[in-house]
Amino acid sequence: MTDAASSTAIIIGAGHAGGELAIALRNEGWEGRILLLGEEAHLPYHRPPLSKAYLAGSVEKSSLSIRPQMAYDKANVEFIGSVRVSRIDRANQRLELADGSQLAYDKLAIATGGRPRPLSVPNAAVAERCANLHYLRTLDDVEQIRAQLAPGKRLAIVGGGYIGLEVAASAIAQGLQVTVLEALPRVLQRVTAAELSAYYERKHREAGVDIRTGVQVADLEVTGDTVTAVLCADGSRLAADLVVVGIGLLANTELAAEAGLQVDNGILVDEHAQTSDPHIYAAGDCTNHPNALLGRRLRLESVPNALEQSRVAAANMAGKAKTYASVPWFWSDQYELKLKMVGLAEGFERLVLRGDPATDSFSAFYLKGDKVLAADTVNRPQDFIAAKRLVAEGIAVTDAQLADDSRPLKELLPVPAA
């Protein structure tokens, strides 16, 4: 039997999930080595500000680190950056690295996250070699985009999801000419109701962003080593000085799949964050987990999910049974608007608004029967706190109760038993 102090735990991926898992594993009592492997040179850093405050230049690079080096030193976590794992040898419990070296593990955690979905157009490969075409996922990506932002420049953004709209808000504030091209009939269509889409489209247009929906990108015009325009299926041509593509994320599951782990729209894990191999766990954007609230599996791209699932993985790797059963929640900052969302609206029957969108402070509730499936809150932190309980606990409410903005939402919550 392996001595606990001589055991080695390795975490592949040093994003939100990997960094949290490493520290949590030590806090849960793991006595052996903990190696945190990252493809980037940076210590784990906050990703949400990349398309928001950091892109806008309102926060310093130093503020992005989730924890300082001393925190990893104190926890005796060995961070190894700029390293890529090329193969997981499950039979011998070893990792093969791109430089040819190998590392042995007793427990392994995969927290490889995801990568931007590439634009599928004829000139994509040529355009991706141009310095003015960008995908936004890493700190290095944003450094390159920031260096090209300047007043008067023409920025074309492909994709009207959270990333695209956050970039638009940051860029328009810096004096760029910004156009957002969204293939679907409305922005944020995959994640929110038509009323919220209309509200955000209005706010962006009022700020000066040119929002174009129902637009299919057919190709990119490349002149020399520069993307000069976005070509649309309707024959229109949008001249651009730089292009940012934000059309979704692909889960990084290749390592797991090649190792024979079960993969289906993410690495399949159970409620303990364990994969189909009892020695291997996984957490974050790359996983597909059973969600008790929804009664089905899903893959979530969410920082709270990454953090909470990592803590569950860490506890179980350390031999302490812990179950993952968190309610999904997300957030997005655009201009002065703080959007916080809880739950998943899939299958909702009706929408109830609380407050007036014209005031830039309101909430939208997605209901099925007398239960709240999900809620979107704009500049309403107290509504969000109450909504988390409404969703998680399946508290019965009426439309009139939710819509009554004269009474605090917390009055609908049952008082916890003494």
UniProtKB/TrEMBL annotation:
GO molecular function: oxidoreductase activity, acting on NAD(P)H
Full protein name: Ferredoxin reductase
A UniProt-annotated Pfam family: Pyr_redox_2
Gene Ontology, cellular component aspect: cytoplasm
Gene3D superfamilies, A to Z: 3.30.390.30, FAD/NAD(P)-binding domain
Reductase C-terminal domain segment(s): 329-413
UniProt keyword Cytoplasm, yes or no: no
Recorded superkingdom: Bacteria
Cofactors demanded by this protein: FAD
FAD/NAD(P)-binding domain span: 10-309
InterPro entries: FAD-oxidoreductase/Apoptosis, FAD/NAD-bd_sf, FAD/NAD-binding_dom, FAD/NAD-linked_Rdtase_dimer_sf, Reductase_C
Source organism (scientific name): Aquipseudomonas alcaligenes (strain ATCC 14909 / DSM 50342 / CCUG 1425 / JCM 20561 / NBRC 14159 / NCIMB 9945 / NCTC 10367 / 1577)
Alphabetically ordered keywords of this record: FAD, Flavoprotein, Oxidoreductase
Coiled-coil residues: none
Statement: the UniProt record of this protein carries the keyword Flavoprotein: yes
